[in-house]
Amino acid sequence: MASPKMQVSPRMISLEHLLLTGNTTALEAFWLDVAAHGAPLIEAIEGDDTHVLVTFLWRGHGNTHSVVVFIGPASWERPTDHQMTRLLDTDLWYKTYWLRADLRTTYEFSPNDPLTPIQYQEFWTRLVPDPLNTRHFTYPKDEEDPKAQDLVMSILELPQAPRQTWILPRPGVAQGQVERHRLRSQILDNERCIWVYTPPKYTKSSEPYRLLLLFDGGEYLHLVPTPTILDNLLHEGEIPPLVTVLIDTLGQTRNQELPCHQPFVDFLTQELLPWVYERYSVTHDPAQTTIAGSSYGGLAAAFAGLRASNFFGNVLSQSGQFQWNTDSETNIPQEWLTQQFITSPRVPVRFYLEAGLQEQGRLAATVPSNRHLRDVLALKGYEVHYAEFNGGHEFLCWRGSLADGLLNLIGHQSTHDLADVP
């Protein structure tokens, strides 16, 4: 993400000059300004309206010998490339990046970092949020892990980041209801939570409602405020009333169930949907039924669309992992599901696909694999809308773009045109 162009903060140059010329109050004045306005520093670039300079800051102590930026504009694998610089012999450490002004991301710091690639379990021991930034995105801890903690990450949203219009409650907007259930699967031999959102004024005696199924249901309740998004869209008349089923994907089996697993599709069609049909007034029409998810959930949604198009006529995928292959021993993306779409007859399914331009590491193939699937679907005659956002593989981005997918697939004003190819 970083650019070879100028990555020097004018504020840092000015502050260093003041200190070198003997201004003894300049540093404390700088810290007071940061306390008042927050961090990171965001500075415009003369003659460049599409990029800004972003400077991350850390106030060190006597034992601080290094600070590393992780995630966000940094990588996971090369911490030595993202070390902060100490300003002279002061307590100020900083790192400046030249970034596109529409970036939305989270980031962390690692003070006195060992300069080795990050491991997932180290989030709770090695990384910390930015103490100078009050904007946080929190991943709740795994209740089944007694050692786990909430993962608190700092938010960076640059001036041109797309507005997340629908995610906050609005005064005067009627709220739907969410009911929590437990559902036992004989096919999968497990049990999970199922949350069902019904829109305001829902009645079981009314005409059948459209239906939306969402994987990773807990995350789409707490990290993506799905009920609030639906309430707002409905209040503005952007989408028709719908019932939404949020399906918990169990941590210990998620990576088996979601990646193109036929028994999981059988669970959806033979157990979950009959359960929903019996209890709620919902459509049986696949053209009015949408299946959705992110990451492996996006992959699972597209697989279900291919294998069960008589149930699911619309697929909404957020950063779907279409680079997935059936051989877990190789890291070579084989795009197994895309090959299935190539060799299978066209089925009556419409698609919304999106991917983040800053998905990194093992997720770096997300954008090219999504572009490839988009092209394959278009050539096969499918109706497909494709979008890219300047962000990473995270719910911070998906919470805003879920509405984009719904508007494209079921919105009253949707034209369903094929997006421009980047």
From TrEMBL:
The keyword Transmembrane does not apply. GO terms for molecular function: enterochelin esterase activity; iron ion binding. It comes from the Bacteria. It holds the Pfam family Esterase. InterPro entries: AB_hydrolase_fold (IPR029058), Enterochelin_esterase_N (IPR021764), Esterase-like (IPR000801), Ig-like_fold (IPR013783), Ig_E-set (IPR014756), Mycobacterial_A85_antigen (IPR050583). PANTHER family: ENTEROCHELIN ESTERASE-RELATED, IRON(III) ENTEROBACTIN ESTERASE. This is Enterochelin esterase N-terminal domain-containing protein.
